[in-house]
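Thread: IPE complex, take 2
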Amino acid sequence: MTDSPHSDNVEEALLEQIDRENLPKHVAIIMDGNGRWAAQRHLPRIAGHREGIKSVREIVTVSRKLGIKALTLYAFSNENWNRPMKEITQLMILLERFLNKELKTMMENGIRFRAIGQIDRLQDSVAKLIHSVEDKTKDNNRMTLILALSYGGRTEILDAIKKACTDIQKEKLSIKDLDEKSFSQYLYTKDIPDPDLMIRTSGEVRVSNFLLWQVAYTELYFTKTPWPDFRKRDFLQAICDYQGRERRFGLVSGEQDH
Ligand code: IPE
Ligand code: IPE
Ligand code: MG
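Output below.
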């Protein structure tokens, strides 16, 4: 950490500015730019992923302290399976280490852990570890930390359609009852509210197959800061920015208050 007195002042000012009554309930983050962060320093890509984990810890901590109820982090996409095997293996090792190390912190801080995505595509030992951390933390209720792993938004929607069709065939669901609400229950994110705010780091202005159904009315926030440099102050800045927006949901300005 390179906390200077100056950055402390900025953080304090931002913390003061944040309205605790108007926090996003669910923040989703596309953690991008680890590789470029490392390349700028002539380091291997894995060094960027390693530094990125420090940002994960910091953002989880500040979210929990603020009182945000759900935080979803995009850690590995379906498309990321096409990266070199060496990088994938290193990422999986980092993931295992993270889960083993953070379980204690999650228990101490009432954090429930969930993973979304095609977890069965991951190596057996990793999938087992994920399920065990999900199970051990299932009664924690201060905040839910959701990791999107082997995740693709289109696949999620297709999986949901298949499950809904199976239920229709089995007469557990009738077509007339299939609406946005009931369909949502077939998604990996069932029981988790749609994100209020989605952040993408590192300058790319795209969604990259993340939570396609759920972002229908999400506020989007893009920053040039690469993920390993994205820390508490940057997160507080994003929350302040979010709080300055008017969410209209298709209505006329101010109408939703009546
Ligand atoms: C994000 O950083 C982490 C993952 C996608 C696993 P990148 O690895 O995409 O870093 P850049 O975008 O190449 O800099
Ligand atoms: C999105 O980042 C996926 C994750 C952050 C896990 P990518 O780096 O894979 O996305 P693109 O390739 O720039 O769209
Ligand atoms: Mg990237």
